[in-house]
Specification:
Layout (H helix, E strand, L loop, with lengths): L9 E5 L9 E7 L17 H8 L2 E7 L4 H10 L3 H4 L20 H7 L3 E7 L18 E5 L10 E2 L3 E2 L2 E2 L2 E2 L1 H4 L4 H15 L6 E6 L24 H27 L5 E7 L23 H4 L3 E4 L10 E8 L3 H9 L15 H6 L7 E11 L9 H6 L9 E7 L2 E5 L28 E5 L15 H16 L27
Parallel strand pairs: 2-10, 2-11, 3-13, 4-5, 4-10
Antiparallel strand pairs: 1-2, 3-12, 5-8, 6-7, 8-9, 11-12, 14-15, 15-16, 16-17
Helix pairs in contact: 6-7
Length: 501
């Protein structure tokens, strides 16, 4: 199927340890880029730079992430599951929460190994204290945003306060009216151009596109007029094209600087697309903020002249998880993992570069112990009747895990929705009504669209995975969602930032 040739939406440029110099690392994330929001999965979309990088790289076909920004980005930074961080829930909210201050970040480890470290774009790992901000979490420089989303032109959060900074300086007034993707690309290019080539560089480029607000310069919409009738979908397609253009400019700048040949490029999305804001994950089920494949199984790839010839242009079906980047990148940099807490991520470089099998056979997607559904009627829900008496894990609790070819979900997962993209012209059969159940088991290798629940047919596998979830739950940190003091905009002096001393 077409989607089997997809990539995750994060770009990393890495010069490798197998060269004389340490690798330069450029890590690019697309925000809310769905499975069907890139050209190599959807020919209506125009993303030629992304498509070319993926075509000549290694597509990570089984790459999993968090269902929304917060767990995804914090797992990326720390190499640890969100349940270890107390960040397994959807948002930081208005409470003083962040990536725990005793966690070691990717940037910490790379800086320790001699890297110049830069963050351009979206942080979203907490900002209630000065110690939470990127320049105190391993980054030498930070130009971008601390919150979940901003207006792409005004750079304001919720229309009320600036959220664009260069370190501690409010840059909102200066760049008011400049489109975010253009601005972030220009800053990233400048850092590459000014970089001392004798020192390795880690550039973490976290675009805010395709996250709402749905805004883009009108010229990017022109190619889609007449092809996409839905207004939101057309705008998102145009945002994807603008994002792709920016990525192409960054890669061109690497080449002009002479860094490209000793670089690795990885591209991922932080979570699935949001159909309510023009995104699409077809043919996968579900959307951003769900644990269905459409919410957590996203485009991803690695591109590099350093990859072996035999793996370039291949599809890697090994299991990957967002926590894998920390150990993988630190290995590439020639660093050590000393000082980190026990990691959930695996070093996947040999799998990427050599095409060998992975050591990862399992990936916890989430356990949300504060999300427990109302007790189902066992006369209606046969899966609840079958598994409610197990002593390892409460099947009413919202959770999901991938193990080998299997994926188990518990706790009710919302609507069974396969959202047909508005630009698709062929008819799609109506799946009819799909019953809500407490437990779902899918063979993802045979059923990547999650259409056939096998929970009543493979009881031993369900019980095995419920026991695994129970063990993970024992180590889950409470999220402390109601910590005080709540956010205080009056203490921010007009710039989104710390409100606790």
């Amino acid at each position: 199927m077409a989607y089997l040739h997809g990539i995750s939406v994060l770009i990393v440029v890495i010069s490798t340890v197998f060269c004389k110099k340490q690798p330069n690392i450029i890590f690019i994330i697309g925000d809310d880029v769905g499975w069907n929001d890139v050209g190599y999965n959807n020919p209506v979309f125009r993303t030629p730079n992304i498509d070319s990088l993926a075509k000549n790289g290694v597509k990570l076909n089984n790459y999993y992430t968090g269902e929304v920004c917060v767990p995804s980005r914090n797992m990326l930074m720390s190499g640890r599951y969100a349940i270890r961080l107390g960040l397994q829930h959807h948002e930081l909210g208005v409470n003083p929460r962040s990536l725990p201050l005793d966690e070691v970040t990717i940037a910490d480890k790379l800086k320790e190994t001699g890297y110049a470290t830069h963050l351009v774009g979206k942080w979203h790992c907490g900002f209630y204290k000065e110690k939470c901000l990127p320049y105190n979490r391993g980054f030498d420089t930070f130009f971008g945003y601390v919150s979940a989303s901003v207006d792409h032109y005004s750079h304001r959060y919720n229309g009320r306060i600036w959220d664009l900074r260069n370190m501690t300086v409010n840059e909102g007034p200066r760049y008011n009216g400049q489109y975010s993707t253009h601005l972030l690309t220009r800053v990233a290019k400048g850092l590459i151009e000014q970089h001392d080539s004798d020192k390795p560089m880690f550039l973490y480029l976290a675009y805010t596109s395709n996250h709402e607000e749905l805004e883009v310069p009108s010229k990017y919409k022109a190619p889609f007029r007449g092809k996409i009738k839905d207004k939101d979908r057309l705008t998102l397609a145009a945002m994807s094209s603008c994002l792709d253009e920016g990525i192409g400019q960054v890669i061109d700048t690497l080449k002009e600087k002479g860094l490209y040949d000793n670089s690795v490029i990885v591209f991922i999305s932080d979570n699935g697309g949001a159909p309510s804001f023009g995104g699409n994950n077809w043919p996968l089920k579900g959307s951003k903020a769900t644990l269905w494949e459409g919410g957590v199984h996203v485009p991803a790839f690695v591109h590099s002249p350093l990859l072996k010839e035999n793996v370039r242009g291949t599809l890697c079906n090994e299991l990957f998880h967002v926590t894998d980047w920390l150990p993988t990148l630190v290995h590439l940099a020639g660093g050590t993992l000393h000082g980190t807490k026990p990691l959930d991520g695996y070093n996947q470089w040999n799998t990427i570069r050599e095409g060998v099998g992975t050591h990862r056979n399992e990936a916890l997607i989430t356990i949300n112990q504060h999300y427990i559904i109302k007790t189902p009627d066992p006369s209606y829900d046969k899966t609840y009747k079958m598994y409610s008496s197990n002593r390892h894990f409460d099947v009413r609790m919202h959770a999901a895990i991938r193990s080998g070819k299997w994926k188990l979900l518990t706790g009710g997962q919302g609507d069974h929705v396969w959202t047909k993209p508005p630009e698709m012209t062929k008819d799609v059969p109506d799946v009819g009504e799909v019953p809500y159940e407490a437990v779902y088991l899918y063979d993802i290798e045979r059923d990547p669209e999650e259409r056939n629940n096998l929970a009543l047919h493979h009881t031993d596998k369900v019980k095995e995975l419920l026991k695994v979830l129970g063990e993970y739950l024992k180590g889950a940190v409470e999220p402390n969602e109601n910590m005080m003091p709540r956010i205080d905009y009056d203490r921010m002096n007009g710039l989104m930032g710390p409100w606790v001393k």
